[in-house]
Amino acid sequence: MTIILKLTLTRPGRKFTNRMSIEYSAIPIRAFLHLVKSSLGTGILAVPRAFKSAGLLVGLFGNILIGILCTHTVYILVETSEKVCAKGKIPSLGYADTAEEVFKQGPKAVRKWSGCVRTFVEIALVSTYYLGVAVYMVFISLSLTKLFSFYYPEAASWDRYQLKLVIMVLLMVLCQIREIKHMVPYSFIANVMLAVAFGITGYYIFSGLGEVEVHMSNGFSGIPSFFSTVLFAMEGIGTIMPVENSMPEPQFLGTCGVLNSAMVVIVFFFTSIGFLGYFRYGELTEVTIMKNLPDDKIAAQIAQGAIGISVFFSFMLQFYIPTDIMWKRLRSKIPEQKHNVSQIWLRIIMVAVVTAIAIAGGEDLGSLIDLVGAIFFSSLGFLVPAVLDIIANVEEGWGRCHWKLLKNLFIIFLALFALVSGSYYAILDMLK
């Protein structure tokens, strides 16, 4: 592996960098593939249910609109990070670092809140990925229960807690892997299984298009669930800054940059799967399209097993982020000779808590997805980037007629709408 030391001089509007970059991770095509992979996960299988909530026509245009908004908020986050890096002559910043630095360099009234903002972003990131892996746990148990129950009818009740406890024990062992490079084989298995599941699901979707009745719109009550589900599935803002920081040249933004190219592909796939999935199954569309596949067909059973295996081996990759943030906060408070044992117990306890959340959520995967999307992805994906962009442009101004300020206030309104209404309906569904 070739290591290149690259020096990029500061110029207005561009990040000041003087960093070691790994050649293979800095190539634009690799950054493009990484962004696509980070968003095209198992969450896409829940998008047809989002279309069911909103209606076919509302879902079509709503999905495209959310995709455009996600792209724009990522754009302003990266642009803001580059601006504060250039101003402070800082090599590169992560998401939480960017939030802190924006407040530090902002007006005097907000500087004292820089530490609080950093803490908020870190808590939101930990909570997002932590509750996200709880959704993974429910997803695994649902897929395997559907597969096993065809051959063993008594397995239909396993999903309540028995299967989750078995999965918990296995994950407690696998989640002791502490370095991402050792997770590569498991990531490869997960990707292969995901491709198999997507391929078979696509076959069943296309085999019966137009056989059921669908609604063009389902009224306002379905919008919060739609918004939260699509945000949960599409938003990958936690991986944006590491990818952008790995690129040695300013090729991330721009009309034909990595970000726009990746988001066009992501929005296309999400819109296609959501539209065709709901068009195929109509009001019978389940919380995940995998549950609509027939129980008695070998191909569908292979897809159920494949998606269960894929999510199982993806679990530790998603689990790495909240665990890493938690450990960085705790390690300074623990004697060095106890670091190894402490990490083991931290991972065991965190997996156990995830399992408890999954068991408490029961089979109501849709409401759990809505709740995570409403609270955390609306905050990280929309609210925080808009606030940072407002503060970062105080000195330069917000453009003619303050259009940047008005635009960001609109994004903040959407974030608060998703937060309040999405959480309300998700909790209401859980109580029912």
Automatic annotation (TrEMBL):
Q: Mark the transmembrane ranges.
A: 21-47, 53-78, 120-141, 161-177, 184-206, 218-240, 252-278, 298-323, 344-362, 368-388, 409-427
Concerning Pfam families, the annotation shows: Aa_trans
Where does the signal peptide begin and end? none
**Where can this protein be found?**
Membrane
Question: What GO terms fall under cellular component here?
Answer: vacuolar membrane
Report the superkingdom from the record. Eukaryota
Stretches assigned to the Amino acid transporter transmembrane domain: 29-427
Q: Which UniProt keywords apply?
A: Membrane, Transmembrane, Transmembrane helix
One GO MF annotation is: L-amino acid transmembrane transporter activity
The name on file for this protein is Amino acid transporter transmembrane domain-containing protein
Which organism is the protein's source?
Answer: Dendroctonus ponderosae (Mountain pine beetle)
What gene is this protein translated from?
A: 109540755
